[in-house]
Amino acid sequence: MSWTWEYVFGAEEAARTAPPAFLAEIERKADELVRAAEAQYLHGPTHGGGDPRGDDIVVPGGMFSYQIVVRSERVYVVQLTYLGF
Fold first, then answer.
1. Pairing mode of beta strands 74-82, 4-7
2. What is the model's pLDDT at position 1?
3. Nearest-5° angle of CA 42, CA 65, CA 8?
4. Chunked in runs of 10, what are the mean pLDDT values of the chain (85 residues)?
5. What single-letter DSSP state applies at residue 18?
6. What was the pLDDT predicted at 10?
7. How many helices (H) and strands (E) does the chain have?
8. Which one, of 57, 56, 52, lies nearest residue 69 by Cα?
9. Are 52 and 68 in contact (CB under 8 A)?
10. CA–CA separation, 30 and 36 (whole Å)
11. Are 75 and 8 in contact (CB under 8 A)?
12. CA–CA separation, 38 and 3 (whole Å)
């Protein structure tokens, strides 16, 4: 398995209507989160502890919420909030 990120729940639907520049910023940050998680959790599928707490990240145009699931080697983007700033 390999670390990656994906949209889930309503975030996938929201991504269909969000501006491309906003989505590009989310994708850039999600890629950074994947690299950091991959470095921190080298043996994801055999991880014995709990998953780290999710958080919100502000990007130009709004913000997004994410959750890391170590055993699945995934960073899930669970919510997008486009504010247009």
1. parallel
2. 62
3. 80
4. 90 92 97 94 80 94 95 95 86
5. S
6. 87
7. 2, 4
8. 52
9. yes
10. 10
11. no
12. 6
